[in-house]
Amino acid sequence: MSRFLTGCAKKLGIFVPAILLAMLSHPACGEERHRVVVSTDIGGTDPDDFQSMVHLLVYADVLDIEGLISSPYGPGRRQHIEEVIDCYDNDFANLKTHSDAYPMPSALRAITKQGETEIAPYGGVRESTEGSQWLVECARRDDPRPLHVLIWGGIEDLAQALHDAPDILPKLRVYYIGGPNKKWGPHAYQYIADHHPNLFIIEANSTYRGWFTGGNQADAWGNKGFVQQHVAGHGALGDLFDQKLDSIKMGDTPSVGWLLNGTPSDPSRPSWGGQFVRAWARPYLRLDRVATTADQIEVFGILEMVLNINDDSLANPEAELIVENQEIPGYVPGDGTIRFRFCPKAIKTYSFRIRSNIAALDEQTGGIQSNAPPVTLAQAPSPNLPKWWTDDPDTQNAEGEHHGAKTVSRWRGDYLADFAARMLRCQTPSVTKPAH
């Protein structure tokens, strides 16, 4: 409704107050509220999760948030989620005057859990965590609504939950911000692809970039200008957003936009979180040798190299695959081989070398050419992945090399105007009766 009114107002030259737009973004009376669990690497290597968490909490009155799980593959812990909740607590007096459906800060702290803090081993799972157990508990609740699991960081806790409780799979609707996260956690991803192909999942490897790339970037709509005008100085949440990064990144926010304005049951339809196509067979290349730059793989695919050790004298054979900023440990299954998995996150030629106590492998070099997916793949969805969705490979919907990103950036004016209205709630109490 808010998007419709905004469009009409622009055509007629009418200014629609931001507060009114924010009120109209509430679900209509009787409309289903979405159940949500967020898994985030907030506090890790990228500050954008703080921004996305701020955005999520100012919309907390229109979503049933059931879990906030810290799932980093590096630094970052549950206290970083609590840091944002503390700011929400400071702004709560103002927020609740706009809607009495905002959850109490104490309720949000109670559902904040610590998940996996390490990259999954080769098998894809390790042991249950507080986060994975909470995900299972939420999914098993007696509630007819699906549980939307928004993965902003590592996918390890989801993999562990599915391993421990495969019965929860039909209840889940997953939106996975892949790309760099898939690069760092290929084992958990491959476990899900191999063992749970019937999962309802959106694998957004590049579509999410449309939130901060493309669209109207002029003046106050630019990534930096928007933060200066509509976020900084808008309550404790706005100040935290600005302090962490004074320019829009919010790379995980499309997963929330998908629920706020779209048709979550049908990812093929337009939404603030993007528009997706049924997935073709997930790209995977297995080689029994060291890859070279003559070898090719689809971007965001999984390269697996299974190399012979050929040295029975080593009690503990070890090796690392060094690619750019990664040092990927090899897995030794005990069958005379060592295995590496690598996921390229960009369309380019990669070079790598091996560091090992295995003489035949030490200082070997190689590489791989990562290519864009052919457009025709969208016409060949995999029958083995009936509910798996991914980025649209059509170049008409790309922002540069980022496939699908334009299906998000096309709505930039709408979702940023709505977000700006929400940030006013942190700053100014409502003079009318709060919405229900």
Automatic annotation (TrEMBL):
<protein>
    <recommendedName>
        <fullName>Cellulose-binding Sde182 nucleoside hydrolase-like domain-containing protein</fullName>
    </recommendedName>
</protein>
<dbReference type="InterPro" id="IPR036452">
    <property type="entry name" value="Ribo_hydro-like"/>
</dbReference>
<keyword id="KW-0732">Signal</keyword>
<feature type="region of interest" description="Disordered">
    <location>
        <begin position="370"/>
        <end position="406"/>
    </location>
</feature>
<feature type="domain" description="Cellulose-binding Sde182 nucleoside hydrolase-like">
    <location>
        <begin position="35"/>
        <end position="276"/>
    </location>
</feature>
<dbReference type="Pfam" id="PF07632">
    <property type="entry name" value="Sde182_NH-like"/>
</dbReference>
<feature type="signal peptide">
    <location>
        <begin position="1"/>
        <end position="30"/>
    </location>
</feature>
<dbReference type="GO" id="GO:0016799">
    <property type="term" value="F:hydrolase activity, hydrolyzing N-glycosyl compounds"/>
</dbReference>
<dbReference type="InterPro" id="IPR013783">
    <property type="entry name" value="Ig-like_fold"/>
</dbReference>
<dbReference type="InterPro" id="IPR011483">
    <property type="entry name" value="Sde182_NH-like"/>
</dbReference>
